[in-house]
Write a structure and sequence with these properties.
Elongation Factor Tu (Ef-tu), domain 3; ribosome binding; RimM_N_sf; six-stranded antiparallel β-barrel; 2 domains; SH3 type barrels
Length: about 230
């Protein structure tokens, strides 16, 4: 760090003396802007808070993630309705329930204010803390990919639902316009795309290529076209 009065090096970036003279209101605005940007990254749902248990702030937690090991003391999660972060203090299993306590939530009254809130994490933290094995993918990497069969695009993944032990990809079907079909002269209300379910099993899914900065990626299938006809 350069301690001269002219410049100060902070994490590799130089700040002019004017930065140090920022008014208190400007400092607050800067912090708020940073916080809002931080919130925007937290879009991956981890689970939902259930009922309060006991008198010291414990809460039942309904995990919607496949990675229970993601929940660790010190993990920071974003509470949607509260619009702020909660930090896990402890995790306890009691029979079939998963109980969490959070920093600064130390009474039943405070805990009850969190009931039914959904908690979120970021894609970056998910990738860092949830290692995948071969041929495993995160939902958020699959959503948005095109489904391709014999070089024909059948549609695009818009959501994933788990029914029983099987994941189903919800595909918004692609319906290219026929060149022989006359085009209306007046504007008409756009029709909603047809949706079909594609089971994520070997009978239909051959392989998946994730999107990269230079390639769109896709889900390559067999026998899937019959599901959307």
């Amino acid at each position: 760090m350069n301690n001269s009065p002219q410049t100060a090096t902070n994490h590799g970036s130089k700040q002019s003396p004017n930065t140090q003279d920022t008014t208190p209101s400007e400092k607050v605005d800067s912090r708020l802007e940073s916080t809002f940007l931080d919130y925007a990254d937290y879009v991956i749902e981890v689970g939902k808070i259930g009922r309060a248990v006991g008198l010291k702030g414990a809460l039942v937690f309904h995990l919607t993630s496949d990675f229970e090991e993601f929940l660790q003391a010190g993990t920071r999660l974003f509470a949607d309705r509260l619009q702020r972060f909660l930090t896990i203090q402890s995790i306890t299993k009691r029979r079939s329930d998963l109980l969490l306590t959070f920093t600064h939530i130390d009474s039943r009254e405070k805990a009850q204010e969190l009931v039914n809130m959904r908690l979120f994490t970021s894609k970056q933290e998910t990738r860092a803390k949830c290692p995948l094995t071969k041929d495993e993918f995160f939902y958020f990497d699959i959503i948005g990919l095109e489904v391709i069969e014999n070089d024909e695009v059948l549609g695009k993944v818009i959501e994933i639902e788990r029914i029983g032990s099987t994941d189903y990809l919800l595909i918004a079907q692609t319906t290219p316009a026929s060149p022989d079909q006359p085009q209306p002269q007046k504007s008409t209300k756009a029709k909603k795309p047809k949706i079909f379910y594609l089971p994520y099993i070997d009978a239909y899914v051959l392989h998946i290529s994730l999107a990269t900065p230079t390639q769109n990626g896709g889900i390559f299938t067999q026998n899937a076209k019959s599901l959307c006809e």
